[in-house]
Design a protein that fits this description.
Structural class: alpha/beta
CATH class: Alpha Beta
Number of strands: 7
CATH architecture: 3-Layer(aba) Sandwich
Number of helices: 7
Distance between the termini: 41 Å
Shape: globular
Strand order of the largest sheet: 3-2-6-7
Number of domains: 1
Order of helices and strands: EEHHHEEEHEHHEH
CATH superfamily: Uracil-DNA glycosylase-like domain
Largest sheet: 4 strands, parallel
CATH topology: Uracil-DNA Glycosylase, subunit E
């Protein structure tokens, strides 16, 4: 299997909520963009929460909107081996180094895990003394949750931390 390397974090000193995925899928790695698969609902959910058509913006403009709203984006794994995009195929994963988060983001107040694989590593965020939330995955593989149900769950966490 090929060793894959993830994407750099998207955050700013005033990041208040960090969304952690597991590891970028094939489409995201190819494009070097978070949530790059056209059926992933991440950008659509954020757009609905913020009343902004993020899909009409360039990727860089989307990232600017993320930072402006106090949101950060990263993954629990910095590298792994995997064929395809499914979390169940991840092998020999290396966790990202989270110790520097609070120094880089002194206003960080909570972490939201985008899906179950990411949430398996919630203990690392709890060790930093941060509240942790598990959100339903925005991946197209999570077809058991409707868009509306995902939006409601994400909205609850975003409102709790003043991002919606």
């Amino acid at each position: 299997m090929t060793r894959l390397v993830g994407l750099p974090p998207v955050m700013a000193p005033d990041t208040r909520l960090l969304v952690l995925g597991s590891f970028p899928g094939v489409a995201s790695l190819r494009a070097q963009r978070y949530y790059g698969h056209p059926q992933n609902q991440f950008w659509k959910i954020l757009g609905a929460l913020w009343s902004v058509d993020l899909m009409a913006l360039s990727y860089e403009q989307r990232l600017d909107a993320v930072r402006a709203h106090g949101l950060g984006i990263w993954d629990v794994y910095g590298a792994c081996e995997r064929e395809g995009s499914l979390d169940t195929a991840i092998r020999h994963a290396e966790l990202n180094d989270f110790a520097w988060l609070q120094q880089q983001c002194p206003r960080l107040r909570a972490v939201a895990h985008n899906g179950g694989e990411s949430f398996r590593h919630a203990k690392h965020m709890r060790a930093l003394g941060l509240p942790v939330h598990q959100l339903p995955s925005t991946s197209p593989a999570n077809a058991s949750w409707s868009f509306e149900r995902k939006l409601a769950a994400w909205g609850e966490v975003f409102r709790l931390h003043g991002l919606a």
